[in-house]
Design a protein that fits this description.
Largest interface: A-B, 23 and 13 residues
CATH topology of the domain at 25-332 in chain B: pyruvate-formate lyase- activating enzyme
Number of strands of chain B: 20
Largest sheet of chain A: 6 strands, antiparallel
Structural class of chain A: alpha+beta
Number of helices of chain A: 7
Number of helices of chain B: 18
Distance between the termini of chain A: 24 Å
Strand content of chain A: 15-25%
CATH architecture of the domain at 25-332 in chain B: Alpha-Beta Horseshoe
CATH class of the domain at 25-332 in chain B: Alpha Beta
Number of strands of chain A: 9
Strand content of chain B: 15-25%
Oligomer: heterodimer
Order of helices and strands of chain A: HEEEEEEHHHEHHEEH
Helix content of chain B: 25-40%
C-alpha cells in the first residue's frame, strides 16, 4: 500500500539493519563481513530536489547506493544536449561508470528529496579482495548495468520503449518489496521523455493511449498497471527483463 | 439515492443544521489563503503541472467585475458603472494577464473550458466578448470543438435576442441566466427589474441556436418573498424547463455587505418562512422531474450533471458542480481564483492595483496557499462527499496511503449525530450520504475540515461564511 518514495530505509548507517541489504552491496555477506563493510560506508544528509551528488568530469572517488528516493544520472553529448542515462532506485548503485576513466562521466541529480550512502572505491576494492561474496555482488551489479544499457540501445518504437520503461520500473520495485502494479512516477515527464529519446508530448499521448486501452491508470503521478500481460506483449523484447 | 425524501420532516433538521459554513468550492477555503503566496509559487505549480505524466487540461475563468446597476442582495466583488470605457480599459490589462499566464504552460496543454463570470460579463458588448475569446484562442491551444465548454453568466437586462444569437454563434454553449425572482415586488426590493418577456426572449434565442445547456439562477430568502409569491416564480421556472436550476440562499449580512443595507430588514422573510420556501422549492422541482444534485443545484435527468451523479463522475470546482473539474483552472481578472496543481491563488480585488501589477509585467496575485498533503487528502474526501456521496475507507485509504480509521479517528467519532438524523449511513466499510443528507452536504463536509473549527466557531458575531441552508 505504501508508495515508493515515502518509505525509506532507516537512516542509520548499519547495512545489517537496512531494509535494502538484500538488494544492495551486502548480498551474501555474513554478520562479520557486513560489519567490515559498514566501516567504509558513509551516509550524508538527504539531497533536495534537483541537487547533485557529483558532476561529470569530477575526479572519481566513491560509488553510491541509493538509500531513499530516486536519482537520475545525466550526460552531456557532443552537441551540448543533456541525456538522462538512468534512474536509480533504492538499493541500486550509481557512479560505477567512473571506475575505468577515474572521473565521473555523468552528473547524478536527486529527483525529489533523496538520500545515498557513499562508498570509497579504493577501500571497497581492497575489501572485495578479502570478501569473495562482496566481490561477486559487485561484479553482478556491474553486469546488470551493462545489461540495462544494452537493452536501451536497441531500436524500438515509442510505445514499446515506454511500455518497457514501465515494466522495468515495475520489476525493480517488486524486487525491493514494493507493489509491482502501483508505481509513483516521481520523475518529470520531460525526464522520462529525455531518457527514452522522445518528445514530452509523446510520453503523455502514449500514457493516455495506454489508459484508453485499459493497460494502466494514472492519477497525478500515481501509475497503476491494470493489464500487465498486455503491457508485456506491447513491450515485446524491449522490457529488458 | 437519487430520489428525495418527503419534505415535511425536514423542518427540524433545517433549523438544527442552519449554521455558518463554507461552500467548499475549494479546500482549503479562501480564508486560508495567505499573502506570502506569489508569482514564483504559481510558476512552480504550473511547472509541476506541466511535468505530470499526463498533464491535466486547462480551464480559464474570466472575471468581468462591472455591472450597470447595483443588485442589493449581491455580495460579489463588482463595480457599478455606466461607462463602457471602464470595460475597454480593463480589457487591455486582462489581455496582458492572459498572455502572462499562457507562457507558463506547455504546448500540449489544451484549453477545455472557458467561463465568463462577474459582476456582469454581459456588461461587455458582444464585440468585446469576441475580442476576449480571440485573445484566449491566440494565447492557448483550444481543445476540439465538441469537448470545449464555453459558458457565460447572462444578465437578461443587458442581452438582446440578437446578441444572444451572436454569443451562441461565437461558441458559447452553456449559459446561466440570472433570474433571482419573477415577482415584481421582490424585484423592486432588490433593485433588479426584469420582465418575464425579457428573460423568455433571451432563452428562446439561445434555444433557437441550439445552445447545449441552459441554467437558471433563482434565490430564496430575498426581501418581500413569501411561499405564495415564490410558488408563482417556481411555476414560471418549471414552465421554462431549463436543463439546470441553481436555487441559492440569500444570506442577509448588512454588517459586511454594504449593498445589503439598502434592503429593509423588515422585508426579509422569517427563518420559518424562508425554510418553508426552500422545502417547497425542493418538493416542486423534484415533482417536476428535476434531480437534486446537491449544494442548491438541480438538473433534468437528461443533463450531464444528473448523468454524472448517477455514474459517479460528478466533480466540483470554483464554478460549482461540473462534469470536468479535473482541469487546472487559470483565473484571470480582478479577484479571480486559480487552482494549478497543488496551489490556489487569488488576484487582487481592486482594479487600480490590478492594472499597476499587470503593467509591471507580474501576475496580479494577492494571496494564495500551497496545499499540504493533509489538505490534499481532505480536499479529495470533501470532493467525494459532495459529489459521489459514497466513501469507502479501504479505497480512499489506499488511494492516499493512509489508514482511514486512524487518520480520521477524531472525525469518525463525530459522525453519530449525522447518522442519527439519517443524513449519512455508516457501515464497517465506509459511509454514504442519504438522499436527505444531500441537502446538508456542507454540514457533513465540515466535519472533515481541519481549519473550520479553529477559524469560525468562536467568531459568530462576524460570520465570514454564509449560512449553510
Amino acid at each position: 500500500m505504501a508508495s515508493q518514495n515515502q518509505v525509506v530505509s532507516p537512516s542509520f548507517l548499519k547495512c545489517s539493519q537496512c531494509a535494502l541489504g538484500k538488494l544492495c552491496l551486502p548480498v551474501g555477506l555474513d554478520a562479520k563481513d557486513m560489519a567490515e563493510l559498514e566501516t567504509i560506508i558513509e551516509s550524508s544528509s538527504p539531497y533536495k530536489d534537483n541537487e547533485s551528488v557529483y558532476l561529470s568530469e569530477q575526479p572519481f572517488d566513491r560509488i553510491f547506493a541509493v538509500k531513499s528516493g530516486v536519482f537520475k544520472t545525466v550526460v552531456i553529448d557532443a552537441n551540448g544536449n543533456e541525456h538522462i542515462v538512468g534512474f536509480h532506485l533504492p538499493g541500486e548503485l550509481f557512479g560505477l561508470d567512473a571506475i575505468y576513466p577515474q572521473k565521473y562521466i555523468s552528473s547524478a541529480v536527486a529527483l525529489g528529496t533523496s538520500s545515498v550512502c557513499g562508498i570509497n572505491y579504493n577501500e571497497l576494492e581492497s575489501l572485495a579482495t578479502k570478501l569473495p561474496s562482496l566481490q561477486r555482488q559487485l561484479f553482478s551489479l556491474m553486469s546488470k548495468e551493462v545489461h540495462t544499457s544494452q537493452a536501451l540501445a536497441v531500436e524500438h518504437s515509442a510505445d514499446q520503449k515506454l511500455a518497457g520503461f514501465i515494466l522495468t520500473l515495475s520489476s525493480r520495485y517488486k524486487q525491493r518489496g514494493y507493489s509491482e502494479t502501483r508505481i509513483n512516477l516521481i520523475m518529470p515527464r520531460r525526464d522520462i521523455a529525455n531518457h527514452l529519446n522522445m518528445a514530452a508530448e509523446t510520453v503523455s499521448r502514449l500514457f493516455k493511449r495506454f489508459q484508453n486501452d485499459g493497460l494502466l491508470e494514472i492519477k497525478r503521478t500515481d501509475l497503476s498497471i491494470i493489464n500487465m500481460e498486455a503491457l508485456k506483449q506491447l513491450a515485446g523484447c524491449a522490457s529488458g527483463q | 439515492m437519487k430520489t428525495l425524501v418527503a419534505t415535511e420532516d425536514l423542518a427540524p433538521l433545517l433549523h438544527k443544521y442552519d449554521v455558518y459554513g463554507p461552500r467548499y468550492t475549494s479546500y482549503p477555503t479562501a480564508l486560508q489563503f495567505n499573502d506570502n503566496f506569489g508569482e514564483e509559487d504559481y510558476r512552480l505549480h504550473a511547472q509541476s503541472s506541466n511535468e505530470l505524466p499526463v498533464p491535466k487540461p486547462l480551464s480559464i475563468y474570466v472575471h468581468i467585475p462591472f455591472c450597470k446597476s447595483l443588485c442589493y442582495y449581491c455580495g460579489c466583488n463588482k463595480i457599478v458603472t455606466h461607462k463602457q470605457q471602464a470595460g475597454i480599459n480593463y480589457l487591455d490589462y486582462l489581455y496582458q494577464e492572459i498572455e502572462q499566464h499562457a507562457k507558463y504552460y506547455a504546448d500540449d496543454r489544451l484549453l477545455q473550458q472557458i467561463h465568463f463570470g462577474g459582476g456582469t460579463p454581459t456588461f461587455l458588448s458582444t464585440a468585446q466578448l469576441r475580442e476576449v475569446m480571440e485573445v484566449i484562442a491566440q494565447s492557448f491551444h483550444l481543445g476540439l470543438p465538441d469537448s470545449l465548454e464555453i459558458g457565460i453568466e447572462i444578465d437578461p437586462r443587458t442581452v438582446s435576442s440578437n446578441e444572444m444569437t451572436e454569443l451562441v454563434k461565437m461558441g458559447f454553449n452553456r449559459i446561466s441566466v440570472g433570474i433571482q425572482d419573477f415577482d415584481p415586488d421582490v424585484q423592486k426590493a432588490i433593485n433588479r427589474i426584469q420582465s418575464k418577456e425579457q428573460v423568455e426572449a433571451v432563452i428562446q434565442s439561445a434555444r433557437d441556436n441550439q445552445v447545449d445547456s441552459i441554467s437558471l439562477d433563482i434565490i430564496y430568502g430575498l426581501p418581500k418573498q413569501s411561499r405564495e409569491s415564490f410558488s408563482r416564480t417556481l411555476d414560471e421556472i418549471i414552465s421554462i424547463r431549463p436543463d439546470r436550476i441553481a436555487l441559492y440562499n440569500y444570506a442577509h449580512m448588512p454588517q459586511r455587505i454594504a449593498a445589503q443595507r439598502l434592503i429593509h430588514t423588515s422585508d426579509i422573510p422569517s427563518t420559518e418562512e424562508k425554510l418553508a420556501i426552500f422545502t417547497d422549492s425542493i418538493r416542486r422541482l423534484t415533482e417536476a422531474g428535476y434531480i437534486y444534485i446537491g449544494m442548491d443545484h438541480f438538473a433534468l435527468p437528461t443533463d450531464s450533471l444528473a448523468i454524472a451523479l448517477e455514474n459517479g463522475g460528478l466533480q466540483r470546482n470554483f464554478q460549482g458542480y461540473s462534469t470536468h473539474a479535473e482541469c487546472d483552472v487559470i483565473g484571470v481578472g480582478v479577484s479571480a481564483i486559480s487552482r494549478i496543481n497543488d496551489g490556489f491563488s487569488q488576484n487582487v480585488t481592486e482594479v487600480s492595483k490590478y492594472k499597476d501589477l499587470v503593467e509591471k509585467g507580474v501576475l496580479p496575485i494577492k494571496k494564495g496557499v500551497n496545499l499540504t498533503t493533509d489538505d490534499r487528502i481532505r480536499a479529495d474526501l470533501i470532493q467525494q462527499i459532495m459529489c459521489d456521496g459514497v466513501v469507502s475507507y479501504s479505497d480512499f485509504g489506499e488511494a492516499h496511503d493512509i489508514f482511514f480509521h486512524r487518520y480520521f479517528s477524531d472525525e469518525l467519532g463525530c459522525l453519530s449525530d449525522l447518522e442519527k438524523d439519517d443524513l449519512i449511513t455508516i457501515s464497517d466499510e465506509g459511509f454514504s450520504v442519504t438522499p436527505k443528507g444531500r441537502i446538508f452536504l456542507r454540514n457533513i463536509a465540515m466535519k472533515f475540515d481541519a481549519y473550520f473549527n479553529q477559524t469560525t466557531l468562536q467568531n459568530t458575531d462576524q460570520p465570514r461564511y454564509s449560512k449553510t441552508l
